[in-house]
Design goal:
113 residues, mainly alpha, 434 Repressor (Amino-terminal Domain), 6 helices
């Protein structure tokens, strides 16, 4: 069975014609993409270590089902959870500034740091 998403796609396309909607949409999309990239990298480290999701959950004191959802669904994990996973996997979290060239064309709303 294929889900028909054409209605939502048409609504999104119509909304993207509005500059305010487009700006908010692009900001949200960029944030989601970055969270997804971090979670993917943590899951890759977990797999490379040979550790199961259940083992990792026990190490960081999380429910195994919650950790499986973290790695398989679009969720917004707490930074504390991400940090605990990184430590358990022998990794660290870093914020790396984009080069001036990459971020020169991007404008962020005043309330976003």
């Amino acid at each position: 069975m294929t889900l028909d998403t054409s209605y939502h796609e048409r609504r999104r396309e119509a909304g993207l014609k509005d500059p305010t909607f487009r700006r908010e949409y692009e900001l949200a999309r960029a944030q989601i993409d970055q969270v997804d990239a971090v979670i993917r990298q943590l899951d890759e480290l977990r797999a490379e270590s040979g550790m199961s999701k259940a083992e990792l959950a026990r190490i960081v004191g999380k429910n195994p089902a919650a950790l499986r959802r973290l790695f398989s669904a679009e969720v917004n994990p707490e930074l504390k959870t991400v940090a605990a996973l990184a430590v358990a996997l022998g990794a660290e979290i870093r914020i790396v500034p984009r080069s001036r060239h990459q971020s020169a064309g991007k404008k962020h709303p005043a309330n976003v740091v």
